[in-house]
Design goal:
By secondary structure, this protein is of the alpha/beta class. It contains seven helices and seven strands. It has helices spanning 15-26, 38-47, 61-67, 94-122, 142-162, 180-189, 201-213; strands spanning 6-10, 31-35, 52-55, 74-79, 125-131, 168-174, 222-225. Strand 4 (74-79), helix 4 (94-122) and strand 5 (125-131) form a beta-alpha-beta unit. The chain binds NADP nicotinamide-adenine-dinucleotide phosphate. Residues 11, 13-17, 35-37, 40, 57-59, 80-84, 103, 129, 131, 174, 176-177, 179-182 line the site of NADP nicotinamide-adenine-dinucleotide phosphate. NADP nicotinamide-adenine-dinucleotide phosphate binds at residues 11, 13-17, 35-37, 40, 57-59, 80-84, 103, 129, 131, 174, 176-177, 179-182.
Length: 233
């Protein structure tokens, strides 16, 4: 990985994505801000001089090949786009399940495939922002759980297929992170939302930076990131 190779952040307009972009920009890293909303990405790019904007809709994977042109080399692709709707299985709706699978699984898979030549050239890392729900069953979030379990399978397969080409793959299985998505989750659960109780977006961003900065003699395969007051036996 050359120092000037860019890191592409998918979901750069989101809370975790934009927090990461600010952290990496302060480190002097080259960035590609990827997302569907040009206006919010352009606004972020003004704040982060030198950052490139790349517009594509992760929720419509079939359109990505036609709309997306990548740099020749990438030091990393971080997948920080996603949706989460609370819905128990008995009330599930195929459209909502399908949307989770499109945005959280099929889109990231296709974006990674399209970025693969640049990742191989840059001996880059793929970082997937997964959830504890991708490791353990949790009632009430059927579409989210299906998509995040699938994302884990994607990461495992990608790692096996790409390790000898120099591409490293890391899943971060995170507990709740204090972002607007989490505020919405609390509202759906009918619970009071206290952001300080949860992992802060800056901590999540620093964890992702640690993955990206890991020397090439090692690979951080999986990280489980709990909030401090996670229930313990
Ligand atoms: N917050 C948590 O507690 C938590 C915990 C574990 C894992 N995660 C994961 O972290 C990732 C980022 O979450 P966040 O908390 O930072 O959420 P966020 O602030 O709501 O950001 C979500 C991002 O996903 C994009 N997005 C949402 N719906 C989309 C759609 N239909 N098509 C394309 N892009 C879409 C948004 O783009 P727009 O700005 O264009 O809407 C935004 O960039 C997600 O994968 C989530 O599952 C979050």
């Amino acid at each position: 990985m050359a120092d000037n190779d860019a890191i592409l952040i998918s979901g750069a307009s989101g809370c975790i994505g934009s927090t990461l972009a600010r952290l990496l920009h302060a480190d002097g890293r080259a960035l590609v801000l990827f997302g569907r909303n040009r206006e919010s990405l352009d606004k972020l790019a003004v704040e982060l001089p030198g950052a490139e904007v790349l517009v594509g809709d992760i929720g419509h994977a079939d359109t990505l090949a036609g709309t997306t042109t990548f740099p020749e080399r990438l030091a990393g692709v971080v997948h920080a786009a996603g949706i989460c709707e609370g819905r128990p299985f008995a009330d599930s709706d195929p459209a909502i399940i399908r949307e989770h699978l499109e945005v959280n699984l099929v889109g990231p898979s296709e974006l990674t495939r399209l970025a693969l030549p640049a990742l191989r050239a840059g001996r880059g890392s793929v970082v997937l922002v997964n959830s504890l729900v991708g490791l353990y069953p949790w009632p009430g979030w059927i579409g989210y759980a299906m998509s995040k379990y699938g994302l884990r399978a994607f990461a495992e397969t990608l790692r096996l297929e790409e390790f000898d080409k120099g591409v490293r793959v890391t899943s971060i299985f995170a507990s709740r992170v204090a972002t607007p998505l989490q505020a919405k989750v609390h509202a759906q659960e009918g619970k009071e939302y206290v952001p300080d109780e949860w992992v802060q977006p800056e901590t999540m961003a620093r964890t992702i930076r640690t993955v990206l900065d890991t020397p090439r003699d090692a690979e951080l395969k999986d990280i489980t990131l709990m909030h401090q007051h996670y229930p313990r036996p």
